[in-house]
Amino acid sequence: MKKHFFQTGLAVLLAAGLTQAQDITSPVSMARKPFGMDAISTYRMGKQSVSLDGINKALLQTGYAAMPNQFTIFGAQSEFTSTRNRKIAMVTQFDLAVGPQSQLVTSNGTNTARAFFFQYGIGAGYRIVNSERFSITPKLMFSPAFFNLTVTKNNAAQPSLTAILTNPSSQERTSIGTGTINADLGLMGQYRFAYKATTKQTDCGTQTTERSLVLGFDAGYRLGTTNRFGRNAGAGDGNPTVNLSGWYATIRLGFGRRTTVGQ
Fold first, then answer.
1. Residue 31 — pLDDT band, cuts 50, 70, 90?
2. Neighbours of 207 (CB within 10 A)
3. 209 near 39, Cβ under 8 Å?
4. Phi, psi for 105 (deg, rounded to 5)
5. pLDDT band, residue 21 (cuts 50/70/90)
6. CB 80 within 8 Å of CB 124
7. What gap in Å lies between CA 123 and CA 140, rounded to an integer?
8. Cβ distance 96 to 72 under 8 Å?
9. In sequence order, what are the residues at sequence separation of 6 or more whose Cβ sits closer than 8 angstroms to the Cβ of residue 239?
10. Are 142 and 92 spatial neighbours (Cβ–Cβ below 8 Å)?
11. Phi and psi dihedrals of 178, rounded to 5?
12. pLDDT tens-digit readout, 178-224
């Protein structure tokens, strides 16, 4: 009788303990942290400095006007963060030299030299200021950069495909260039102007999507190696060196989309 009473009491205590433990742990185990993605895409426009002193010396010696050591650039940038850790941002970008013709084209009367500058980068940043609308992010990126110079005779006829295939030199054009991988240490900031928000129910909980207009800036320094100008076979040994390192500063305008899913 005593044994049966003891077993019954033990069973009641165990059942009560399990019920209490379930009451304590259930809200914790069932709780879900919100998750999602924050994506920002912007166009960029600004200035990029490079060192073309060696090329400009050769241009001046052969009757051309010097090219500036600062180009107007236009490009795009994408930034991605997780809503669970919005301080770490993955960043990609590219820039292309644009602007007035005098920046990219020079002539000595007989021939015309056209410059081409392009760079892209991938890296990460850490948001030291991170509010709902405003952020400031130091970033570190690897940024390959390329500079090319194409020289064409001013009176050269436009060759046909057959002429080029038969005699490539009929183009009367030569292109040489150089490239390097820069380390890009910069700072970017932006402000978001939300203009639309939608909410819907999913299997994972409530999904909220916010769309915003983004206005920002981007500035820093790209540091790379000094290379001999000229990649073509037989060219480059006596050519000047080129360093595509330099300061840059841009303004950015684009759109952001922040999607959060959770209870």
1. low
2. 17
3. no
4. -130, 135
5. very low
6. no
7. 6
8. no
9. 54, 58, 176, 228, 229, 230
10. no
11. -155, 165
12. 888 999 999 999 999 999 989 888 777 788 899 999 999 999 999 98
Residues 140, 37: Cα–Cα separation, whole Å? 21
Asked if 239 contacts 230 with a C-beta cutoff of 8 angstroms, the reply is: yes
Give the position of tokens 């150089």.
178
Burial group, residue 259, by CB count within 10 angstroms (0-12, 13-18, 19+): middle
Q: Which residues contact 14 (CB under 8 A, 6 or more apart)?
A: none
Closest CA to 62 of 121, 13, 8, 110: 110
Alpha helices by DSSP H, the chain? 2-30, 53-61, 101-104, 161-166
Rounded Cα gap, residues 59 and 178, in angstroms: 17
Closest alpha carbon to 79 in 41, 109, 117: 41
- Assigned token pair, 233: 């076979």
pLDDT digits (tens, 9 = 90+) for 105-163: 999 988 999 999 999 999 999 999 988 899 999 999 999 999 999 898 888 777 778 87
The answer to whether the Cα torsion of 241, 244, 247, 251 is positive or negative is positive
Q: Single out the residue of 19, 117, 113, 110 nearest to residue 73, CA to CA.
A: 117
